[in-house]
Amino acid sequence: MELLITGGRLVSGEPADVLVDGGAIVAVGRQPHAVADEVVDATGLVVAPGLVDGHRHVWQAPLRGIGADMTLTDYFGAVLGRALDAYTPADAHLATLLGAAEALDAGITTVVDWCNVAKSREHLDAVLDAYATAGIRAVVAHGGPGQDGDAEFLAGLDGRVRGGLAILGPQYGAGDEAARQIRLARSLGLMTSMHMAGGADEPLDRLHAAGLLGPHLQFVHVNAMTPHEARLLSDTGAGVTVTPVVEGTMGHGASPYSRFAGAGGRCGLGTDVVVNAPPDLFEPLRDTLRRHRAETSSMAPAGPVLAAATADSAAAIGLGSSVGAVAPGLRADLVLLSGLAHVRGDAAAALVTTSRSSDVHTVIVDGRIVKRAGHLTTLDLPKLREAAVSLALRATDC
């Protein structure tokens, strides 16, 4: 099916039409003679790449707001302990639908689901079924791959929903087990994601010495990243994803965005947990810009920060050749934003500093419209939120 977006303006400022065929972008630029099965009038709208959320515990969507004053220790007990234990496969399905709906509503077209709710194959199947329904692009990083068969099953996923492994890693778990899991994932072509603080006991040096660092790994947070570790991660091409809102709210430490950038690296962004953070990437973008300007004592331009939620975030999770930009050959994951028609030239800076979820007019994933004129087309967000209330009450009353 062909889709033509006409009359819009790219974030870079150029007027452009975008022609989509078979879920891929085939042309960007004026297309006065193009014929398509469906035409989207983007007059007055900015055409941007779909936002890429590089780290999100999607199953926690029903628990939004319960942890405003939680320490990390509190969170481990209340959320990863009691609430997680209460989730049935049906709960995992509902929670994933809700999380996907909130992401799509905010212009997020790709999410890395750090899926520690996959406590059984039934839970994993429920999550995958929810993503099949939702229409979002997802990397489901299995948070408890106890059996090698689970990893092999995930490696067989192809297309809009793919698999990965979410492991404790060498800093929070046994080093030999982390090495085994990384080697297994690499042999199967899966991304491996892990939380990491860095510094202290030199976990990254140990991985490097074992020949395990590289683009197949994604490190989340790394708030204690040293200059040496920043260079090591940058030089080996390992992915780094930061979640500045949650990191600041829960006291993880300062975001390493500027430190990594100083070593030539490019961080991706994530929302992390909605128990104490909004389900969008607009606030993480602004938080990153503010901190970067403060740490560099400069008026670093706002526009380039957008890459942290698009191209750089996609690269950090191994999808840089598929999504993250409006360019021929990439998948048609796009967001049309309102409210910036008066901005002349490059609109990326205005997007970073002022846009919000209510400005997300239209969302397209893999060439399919999932939000049109401000309303989701495949999911009913208010009904999902209503349906999830009883789950939240039960999960937090354990």
How would you sum up this structure, described in words?
This protein has about 400 residues and is of the alpha/beta class. The chain folds into two domains: about 1-50 and about 330-375, Roll (Urease, subunit C, domain 1); about 50-315, TIM Barrel (Alpha-Beta Barrel), CATH 3.20.20.140. Helices cover about 35% and strands about 25% of the residues. It contains 14 helices and 17 strands. Strands 1, 2, 3, 4, 5, 14, 15, 16 and 17 form a nine-stranded mixed beta sheet that branches. It is globular.
Rg, please? 20 Å
CATH superfamily of the largest domain: Metal-dependent hydrolases
- SS-based class: alpha/beta
**Helix percentage:** 25-40%
Number of strands: 17
Unreliable spans are none
Which CATH-level-2 architecture of the largest domain? Alpha-Beta Barrel
Please state the overall shape, judged from the principal axes of the Cα atoms. Answer: globular
| Ends apart, CA distance between termini | 48 Å
Largest sheet: 9 strands, mixed
Find the CATH topology of the largest domain. TIM Barrel
Mean pLDDT: 95
Can you tell me the number of structural domains?
A: 2
Tell me the fraction of residues in β-strands, as a range.
15-25%
**CATH structural class of the largest domain:** Alpha Beta
Number of helices: 14
